[in-house]
Amino acid sequence: MSDFKLKASTLALSAALLAPFAAQAAVEGPSGMDFYDVPFVNTTQNGDLIWYREANVNLGGGAALAKAYNVMYRSTDSLGEENVVTGTVLISSNEWEGSGERPTLSYAVGTHGLDQSCAPSMQLQAGSDYETRNLRAALEKGYAVLVTDYEGYTTGATPTYLAGESQAHAALDIFRAASQIPRAGIDINAPSAVWGFSQGGQTAAWVGQIADDYAPELDLVGVASGGTPADFPVVADYLNGSTGASFLLGGIIGLSEQYPDDIPVDELASANGKAVIADYKNKCTFEFLFDYMNESLSSYTVGNKDLDELLQVPSINQRITDQNLGGAGADVPVLLYHGTADEFIPIEQSIELKDAYCRRFDKVTYDVYPSEHIVTLFQAAPTVLTWLDERFAGEDPRNSCYSFAADPVSNANPGGGDFIVSLDEWNLDAELHLATLDQTVELPEDTTISADANITDESLQGLLTVPDFYAQLNILIQLTVGLSVEPVGQIEATTQLSRDGRLSIDGSTQANVLINTAGFSWLPIPFNCKTTEPATFDLNYEGPISDFGAGGIVFAGETEFAELECGWMTALFNSLVAGPGQEYNFRLVPPAPERL
Amino acid sequence: MKKSTFGIMFAVGAIAAAGFHFHTISELSESQQHVASDVRVKDMPAIEYQPEELAAMSPDQLIQMQKDALVAATEAADDASELVSLDRRPEFVSPAEWLMLQSVASQKEDSNAELLRLVNLLRFNKQLQALSETIDMEERHSLSEAVLAQLPKRIENREMSVEKAQSIQLKLISQMYDNDSDVRERAAEEARRIGAQFSIKAS
Question: Which of A85, A149, A254, A286 has a Cα-to-Cα distance from A425 of 20 to 30 A?
């Protein structure tokens, strides 16, 4: 043990002896990776802060971040055993503009990977955390944001991935730990909430079910749980041999870590399985997602036992079904949300969770997104944050239990093949800036793109649809021109999702520009001008995958309009409209959600 | 709507539609005609025809004006140098075009310079248009030389990309010469003038 650790341990131990029932005196932790070495400290209560340090996190430019801390704190696993968890505390630089104290949000992350380097606290420092966009959005609101790593990222440990109660404990205990950081300004009595998606959705829902018993002192006003794996056998079956197969493998590894006697993975795994597990433990999300896509569990097990056979083993079945949600009611209002095209977690079992809560007369708001898993994660942020604001303001939530809307049905792309993200009539927020006229023309609101982005074979094909529209051009004041942008052929692009979660699109589409009419709104006169060759619009983008769902994919550039054929006015319109330097800006906007 | 705005657009529409049923401004109610319009022509050469006068003309008259302007642009091919000043409407600009160019130019800070640029560009575009409509070899040659001469200015003004200009060059030059080596030599010379490169692999 280093001198520092010995000193820290001694300090902590002294504090514990002097006040055995009080919260631990906060100790500043070491720099570097030493922070993740668990010191010999006697803690007395869940949420005791073992140590903390100021952290340099990289959320990108312009983030509303005043200060950040790393924390190590005591928590409890799913079996009720004491454990040690790390995490990050983010203090917003924005004033809280709502009533009362600045709220505290525990943001429960989704799957990050089992290697220590995948820990959210480490990826936030490295600037590589794929959920950064949602954290930024929460900080923008003025919340204090707490991000638990969950159990298993201290040095030498393995995450108990998908162990629901353990994760919920970690997400609750970080409220207690953060409130012990000197001068961080986090009040344990402040209004609080938990938000998470996917694994984080599981965590948030578990929090809703146990918060009253586990952390009764918190003023928890709501939990937002998206992409929630609620029925584990159903989700496991959906994942097995499918696009998200790696999450099933990770779940087996993680749950075997929590329940080693009941899920004895060393005995179950074949030689190939053991090699795969060793490899998996060294990878983060966007690495194992592709490396183990479409693999069946049977390829890793002794005797090629598949999921069905494994679930017939009582101890395994018990521990898998132990993770199911809905066995208890939610203590606080719950927002559930899910994408109909979710290819990892089926929406139907999420609806069943809603129904289970409704049967207990819980307050459940349910939002349906027309999107796949990763898109929904980021698309939902504005709606979720509005819902949270309403909870912090003390408003009653809409209760979807009383909705007569039909239950949503999955329209996910089938698993087992290429990983295809379908864009079904996504809105294109598009504008053209005409060079000579020095004027921006907005394309109509119902301009859409439908496309299949095949992440596996790295291609994107789609169609642009632009309804005819009218614009006032700066040729003569109040001259209204009827325009068409007439796509020629398909959108063709290559698309790649890198192993650190960055998306790139490189392609183009072509379109002719038509001036159909000109005149005034009550008297359009036919013109029938059309470019003699289509203009090419390059569609190039490179950025975090979160941009896909958050409306952050923007294609911008310059194109050249070929000469138009306009009868006797050809030369005039070619002088005013044709030529290079025509700027365009196309932003992809996912379709809006529906609240049940 | 002011009569001037309506009148000129109606005239232009009639020209473009060429055969579309023609209405005169007098058939419209006063309220329909009353839409704000303010073509700022301060410090610019005067409008030769009032919009009302244009609107009162028949489509045939308006089209004839366009034809006359096109002929003038063709005749102007003998001197391809850029106009450097304007004190009145050039003959190759029709009255309707003149009003609209002034309207567009007036939105720019240096409206006179913009009007001059647009007028030069219009002449170039008319000469290109005339090229596509004439089969007279002498006229074609004259127009081709004029267009070739003006291409560097079009690029300098960002009115055309180098790629587009070179495409026009090759099309015109291949029609001007029968001999492949002459085509290559001229194409290389013209390419240099626009800062492009030209090469054809010997067969």
Answer: A286
